[in-house]
Amino acid sequence: MMKILLLVVALLQLCAAYKILVYSPGLSNSHLMFNGRIADLLISAGHDVLIYKPELMAAATTNGSDIARMLVVDIGVKEKWAKSFEKHDDMMFKGSSMSVLDFLDFQKMTVEACDAQLKRKDIMDILRAEKFDLAISETMEFCSYGLFHHLNIPSNIVLSPGPLMDYMADAFGFPAAASHVPRNDYGTDPMRK
Hints:
alpha/beta; 15% strand
């Protein structure tokens, strides 16, 4: 009888639903849709999922999910991000390269956006009260990991919907082998031509 009771308890643990935060910054509709699909799959598996969407770009209008709970927050940086991403579009779609100053400007903006989120005590209190078991974020920027730490979320998962950027791969401890993996710099690497 004791063995059956232990087996039932073990099975209940396996079937437990987790509270999951999906950090989905409003950079682009494609990324929001990717994160929304992840959330939808987790919900269909029985988990309680909240998508937190700090708005960064005015053009990123979708939530990506019709079934996930949403927390959408305007953190006051959309105009600044729109100006910066004009240069980013040139880099991605016209083959121009990103200068060191452009890269540093982007990094500065991500820090400012992160700071704007952390200063929103009302939002941080809402998220902390959820007592998430797990958080999920893409490799677009590093704010999410500081946010997860700030919210005392014990575990996190990193997703990459596209090629892993060199600086991200290095930061996560798995740099690409330069001898056979081209850099992801949109057109200036001779291995891509």
